[in-house]
Amino acid sequence: MNHFANILRYAKPYKRFAVGHIISNVFFALFGVLSFIVLIPMLDILFKENVVAPTTKPTLEKITEIKDFFENYLAYQVTEYSHGDDLRALSFVVVLIIFMFLFKNISGYLANYFLVFLRNGVIRDLRNGVYKKTVELPLSFFSEKRKGDILSRVTSDVLDLQYSFLSVLELIVREPLTIIFTITAMLLISAELTLFVFIFIPIMGFIISKIGKSLKRKSDRVQKEQGTFLSTLEETLTGLRIIKGFNAEDKFNGKFQESTSRFYHFSNKLLNRQNLASPTSEFLGICIIAAILWFGGSMVITGEIDFLFISKKATLKGSEFITYMGLSYNILVPAKAISRALYNIKRGGAAAERIQEIIDTPNPLKDKENAIEKTTFDSEIEFKNISFKYENEYVLKNFSLTIPKGKTVALVGQSGSGKSTIANLITRFYDVNNGQVLIDGLDISDLTTSSLRAQLGIVTQDAILFNDSIKNNMKLGNDNATDEQIIDALKVANAWEFVKDLPDGINTNIGDAGNKLSGGQKQRLSIARAVLKSPPIMVLDEATSALDTESERLVQVALENMMKNRTSIVIAHRLSTIQNADEIVVLKKGKIVEQGQHKDLITKNGTYKKLVEMQSFE
């Protein structure tokens, strides 16, 4: 129920719809009960009951006499209208019943009308909240999670809530009020018969609760398995070229089918348990109706109660008993709805828990309360005795490096030496375990993340583009950029030469992940995006690794021009691209082993020279 309360927090902005929904449901429940009550005078007329109508308009003097007041008031109104004509009296009561049902259904429509805005609003805000938190969470969170599982939480789990938890919103007011009003009317008609009915209600509730006990656990298994096969699907779509290239279609097909088979079995168990709810509650309800028929019928026939140790006179008119039976059935419908709602809450509990896990996950990279908004870069970047580990082993150990403004520093070394980790730390995708990363003497953890990253232009090893036009991909770097500025940036990155020949130029859609373009073209667009942003600090993580030799030369010239007035951190695999760097830092197992310019490092005849000799220069 805690998860239910957490989800309902999202209903706060829609209070006015909630109020309208509640008021409409109050009237729905009230008119629903009154539509049965007004049957009594009609049945009295049909069964020729000798009802003596008052000659003056009745008044309510004591609350304990409310039953007699309603009976006398209805009898008075019927008599006033009919003047002793039974057919005229019957017509009056029939019209009254029609109006009761009309008002009931109008109220029901209004309740559902307001609920549409309430429920859909909650779902929208919940989905937006999950997505927003997903974007805010650090990369470390997603390295431990399957993408398919995240997709499952944002899509199917939220949808599951719509048809489990949030369908309960419809029942929170309507069904309990219907039961309360109905039981009140039943008590007024016959307190003895109603108390008899209450003997069976706890038994019914106990049986239903036993059936629903395992629903949450079964639902959790279904949702986790859905995350598994969605993850397999996502991996398949991402790596389809490799799967086909290695003839691994059967292997992945088998993996997917194993997951969907488990999902099939788990879903069957869950749905069969859910399907047991309605027939069980209906059968139990009929058992109660049968008990009422026997007990109430004997009261009408004999005019007394004789049950267990109770024996007393009790009068119950035939018209009242039939109305009472109708009211009893009127309890069954909301009781069944409430039992289904309890099942839904159990089932939705698993989905709510999985969604809440994302929403409640603390963000270790969240801005501090009084974080500084930095708008300029003035002097230097300093890595001060930093140590960092992704899991157990440190990738960087007591690493220190100062990069003055306007200088280009290249980081080289074997794979796993910690080069890309430096890029992850300066951009604050991760926080250091020990030490500090400083910009102009300010610890980057004291800055707002948005202002820090506004100072940085990032070009990653993998050219990450989105299923949109070239123009919109470029405008990630500068949302206010004009077409002319976009074209200038494309020219700097030597990308304009192929963009200008595309069918719609910069408005051409490049497909999912930019797959309508070659690897080199995608990387040049990625570089152009960073150029368009025009930040004071550039972080280039293997920026030319996806380019062919010709493209590399073209882009290298562009990068050198772009970096002239900027501070640049260049992580390079191809050492030919960083020979002109102001300083080259050679890393090995998270530590600096050599540092200097290209010529000086070659002269040292150390690690850097060995790396150079392993590569051929053209």
Measured distance between first and last alpha carbons? 68 Å
Structural class: alpha/beta
Q: What portion of the residues fall into strands of 2 or more residues?
A: 5-15%
Q: What is the overall silhouette?
A: elongated
Short summary:
The chain has 618 residues and is α/β, with parallel strands linked by helices.
Would you give an account of this structure?
With 618 residues, the protein is of the alpha/beta class. The chain has two domains: 359 residues, ABC transporter transmembrane region fold, CATH 1.20.1560; 234 residues, Rossmann fold (3-Layer(aba) Sandwich). It is 60% helix and 11% strand. It contains 24 helices and twelve strands. It has a six-stranded mixed beta sheet, with helices on both faces. The protein is elongated, with a radius of gyration of 37 Å.
Ordered list of secondary-structure elements with their pairings:
Elements: H1 2-8, H2 15-37, H3 39-46, H4 66-82, H5 86-136, H6 139-143, H7 147-162, H8 169-189, H9 191-198, H10 201-212, H11 215-238, H12 240-245, H13 249-275, H14 277-302, E1 304-307, E2 310-313, H15 318-360, E3 380-389, E4 394-404, E5 408-413, H16 419-426, E6 434-439, E7 442-443, H17 449-454, E8 456-459, H18 470-474, H19 483-492, H20 496-499, H21 519-533, E9 537-541, H22 549-563, E10 567-571, E11 583-588, E12 591-596, H23 598-604, H24 607-613
Parallel strand pairs: 5-10, 5-11, 8-9, 9-10
Antiparallel strand pairs: 1-2, 3-4, 3-6, 6-7, 11-12
Helix pairs in contact: 1-15, 2-5, 2-8, 2-15, 3-5, 3-15, 4-5, 5-7, 7-11, 7-15, 8-9, 8-15, 10-14, 10-15, 11-13, 11-15, 14-15, 19-21, 21-22
GO molecular function, one term: ATP hydrolysis activity
Domain ABC transmembrane type-1: 22-347
Subcellular location: Cell membrane
